[in-house]
Every structure is written in structure tokens, then in C-alpha cells.
């Protein structure tokens, strides 16, 4: 599933639409929180349901770093999420600290942002895994060659981070962030059937 960003109502609508069974598994590409209205509810769902797992996204990571006392600058949406969550900070910090940067599904890899082409998995940096878009000097720039145009590893990479109105596709990568928090859609990808399922956002929660 693509970036949720606190869009809990859309998350539950999408779960209903795919008819998630007790034996199914739902995996998020990260950024569970910030920007949308219900970060707490999204976290509580992922923390309480064993079917749900996620890699850590850049927004999840920066809030975790802030809670650990690192000198990081929070953007406004991250400050608002901190305010919403600080009452149960210890429980949320423990959960966020448990999240991996990569989930290996045998035929697929799940990461938040991307993988550097021709770099071994163990040598990928935290910055690339959580913020990579293009292969120029600025990994976060939207200008330049998208990493997934070039990546051609053994496993298909499922990623988020870079919102678009339609899922992004490369030779061996699929981008699932379809901009729900910006008023577009929340999208899931069913690996077994190579199928996308989406629900419309209720509104544009982040208009930036």
C-alpha cells in the first residue's frame, strides 16, 4: 500500500475494498504519519493487527529521531503530528524504532523511497532508502533520471515517497504513492494478481 500519511478513513475504505482476509498480509511502503488528520489511528491499527507491517518512511524516521533527542528540524506537518502523538510518545517511539528499512518478500522488496541501481542491498544508505528520487547530485530532486528507470535488480521493488496521480512503473519497480493526502487516491497493489486497487481521497488534507 502507498503512503498513508494519516489518511485513516481512506485506509479503512481500501482495506474493505480489497476484502482483506484473516490470512492476508498488508504491507505499507512507509510514511504512516504526518500531513493527514489521523496519524494516531493509523499507528494504532498497525500496532494492533498482526497482518499489518511497514517499512519506515522519511516522515516516520524524522519524528523518531526528534523523539530520541537528535537535533533535527521538523516541518510544520511533522510538528503537528508530534503534538498529536506526544501523549503516547513512548509507545509510538518503540513501534517506530522496530520498523525496518527493507522488507524482503522473496520475489519483491519493499522500501520507502528507492534503491541505488548496481549497489548491493547491504550498502544502500538510509538516505537513499527513505528519500531517493533521482540519480543526480540531489537525491530528493524531481529533476533528473528517476532511479526506477535504471534499476534492474533480481527482485521487483515496491516503493512510495514520490506522489503521482498514477502508480509509477519501471523495469523492476512499482511506485504506489498516488497522493492520497493531496486529494488524489490511496492505492494498494496485489502481488498475486498484479492488480492495483484504489480509493479516492475524501479531501486534500495537505494543500502545499
Structure commentary:
The chain has 208 residues and is α/β, with parallel strands linked by helices. The chain has a single domain (8-200), classed as Purple Acid Phosphatase, chain A, domain 2 (4-Layer Sandwich). 29% of the residues lie in helices and 16% in strands. The strands form three sheets. It has a five-stranded mixed β-sheet. The chain has a two-stranded parallel ribbon with strand order 1-2. A hairpin with a 4-residue loop joins strand 8 (185-190) and strand 9 (195-200). The longest helix is centred in the N-terminal third of the chain and has 11 residues, at 8-18. The mean pLDDT is 97.
Concise overview:
This protein is α/β, with parallel strands linked by helices and 208 residues long.
Quaternary organization:
single chain
What is the radius of gyration?
16 Å
Number of strands: 9
Helical content band = 25-40%
Taking the alpha carbons of the first and last residues, their distance comes to 23 Å
CATH homology superfamily name: Metallo-dependent phosphatases
What spatial order of strands do you see in the largest sheet?
A: 3-4-5-7-6
Low-confidence stretches: none
CATH class reads Alpha Beta
* Mean pLDDT score: 97
Number of domains: 1
Structural class, from helix and strand content? alpha/beta
> What is the CATH fold-level name?
Purple Acid Phosphatase, chain A, domain 2
β content, as a range? 15-25%
